[in-house]
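Hey, resending since the last one bounced:
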Amino acid sequence: MNSSPGERFSGHSRSRLRTWLWTLLALAVLVTAIVWLSLHFTSASGAAGSKAAAAGNANRKSGSRRAGRAISVSVAPVKRGDVSEYLNQLGTVTSLATATVHSQIAGQLMRLRFKEGQTVRAGDPLALIDPRPYQAQLSQYEGALDHDRALLENARLDLERYKTLIAQDSTSHQTYDTQAALVKEYEGTVKTDEAQVAATQLDLIYCNVVSPIGGRIGLRQVDVGNYVTPGDTNGLVIVAQIAPISVVFTVPEDDIPLIDKAMKDGGIPVDAFDRAQTQKLASGTVDALDNQVDTTTGTVKLRALFANADGALFPNQFVNVQLLVGTRKNALIVPTSAIERGTSNSSFVYVVQPDSTAAMKTVKLGPSEGERVVVESGIEEGDEVVVDGADQLKDGQAITLASDTKTSAAEPGKSGKGQHHHRDASASGAPGSSPDSMASQPGQAPSRSMGQPPDQSASPSPSGSAGQAPDQAAPASPAAPAATPARP
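The structure tokens again:
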């Protein structure tokens, strides 16, 4: 039966209305699903991020001082011990005797009997001056002496004869007295001749020049063949005594009582070092203290004696002198490397505190010996002071001991696979965590939340905790909703 146009229009309207209703219903379901999923994953991600941020903040608070800002240092304990008290001064090596050898007669230098730099003893021959003129002169004086002795002998015989004649009253007393005076005259002449002979013999001895002292010979001042005289300014050669030898140095006048007391107690040991104070040259003792203070410098001179058997000290050499004037008993001692210098010549050290920080302590220093120095005040026995790494410290700075750092770094297998990629995994309190812990088990595809990039499922959270534990990873996405019916 044919329907009317009104009925066909009404049926068509109902069909279109049902289609629109289903479409709206599908859209509503789809919107509801999207909103539900968005809210679910937003809350889950927020909870995981809050837990990761809380864990990261806790780790940073507990480990920032040790791992982030802590400085590795080496320390040494403060101990008690005996320290020798020294005075260090600059001195000059001075020979105890220096002689310029001159010729004591005039003549031609025939021979030099020494080598430059040779060590000689007193009396060793050094040179020969031509002796022939003096030998001839000696022969002349000896002849005159024999002549005058003969005259004296004859005069004495005549005097005996006149004495006999006087007894016989055969001659005058005047003749006798004249002969007695002649005998005395000849005696004087003979003495003069004897003195001339002795002087000439001494000149012959002086022709052989000998060393007046023992010591080392310097460079010659004259060559063979020259005519030398006693008045020559430079002489023939200079001889300086080197064993024993002395060192002359000065000390401040304030140290005079200390040195005087030490000398009365048994002497002051002295060590001589080279200019760089690295090599010990010789050891000796203080021999003399000068009797007056130099008013221009406020110092007093001292002389120290050294055996110098090996010749290590050289005349006019500059050396560093170290005097042992006493010993500080049971004193607080720290390594010199622990001492830091501040303003106004103040000194301080860094002392390790129980909370692993370094506290700056001002100290008063005493005498030092080698690598040790006495601390008179500021620290106590048993304290630990920083000896290496103090240049990076400040008061209250967090520190770690170098030995602890090396030990923790040497322990293997603490961070598993994540150790290579996440260096702070062990510091975050989750050892063994790794990027692999963020993934699912083998054979399962890794899940990720809606709207999240694929590479963020295994990356650290925004809080910066690279070592996040596996239980802090984002939860897997729930199953996807059913497929939405296709729009007609």
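Confidence is low (pLDDT under 50) at residues 61-68, 405-488.

Sorry for the duplicate.
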